[in-house]
Amino acid sequence: MADYKIAPSILSADFARLGEEVENVLAAGADIVHFDVMDNHYVPNLTIGPMVCKALRKHGIEAPIDVHLMVKPVDRMIGDFIDAGATFITFHPEASEHIDRSLQMIRDGGCKAGLVFNPATPLHYLDHVMDRLDMILLMSVNPGFGGQKFIPSTLDKLRQVRERIDASGLDIRLEVDGGVGVGNIAEIARAGADTFVAGSAIFNTDDYRATIDAMRSELAK
Ligand code: DX5
Ligand code: ZN
Predict the structure, then answer these.
(1) Which of 39, 66, 134, 177 is catalytic?
(2) What was the ipTM of the complex prediction?
(3) Which of 164, 167, 190, 203 has the fewest CB atoms inside 10 Å of its own CB, making it the most exposed?
(4) pTM value?
């Protein structure tokens, strides 16, 4: 079985109790904390920035933090999130003027680097940078909000990216984000994903452990 990772998106957590929410979801078996950064410019919503990431580290959160930058411009935030203790930093290629430089900045700062593809963003952005990537994130909704419906054409795109990763022989995680839940996680895994972001599907349930366990048993099928 692939090395599957579950990455709850804290976008759907209770922000008034964020430290506790993150502790609870990790205690319930989550692997990675997915941290959505929205700027009301690249996407039509506004969320949290590097100070909150730093505060989670100060609070004692040691799990990998997967910072999904939905911002334009990109580079200034890369530096700030490196300093704030991010583990992964991913950004949308069309939001960066210099994709290669942004990826290089992330790795130079000791973080893992990734590109994010919106449902209609073409995969050609991968062409010259595969060896600079630790993660490829396919959006299965248009970015900006939690609780949207999974866009089915993502499955075909996942299969294409899985082929490219396998052909490259590189160690690159394939993450999917948006509308992922117990009901579709197995199908998404079969299409090639190994890392699953889920916001509302986890945080809108009362028992995080039961939900994460249900996802893992779907993945084991
Ligand atoms: C959407 C964000 C997602 C979002 C997923 O722009 O990038 O991470 O929180 O939420 P769900 O799992 O509820 O679709
Ligand atoms: Zn996200």
Answers:
(1) 177
(2) 0.98
(3) 167
(4) 0.98
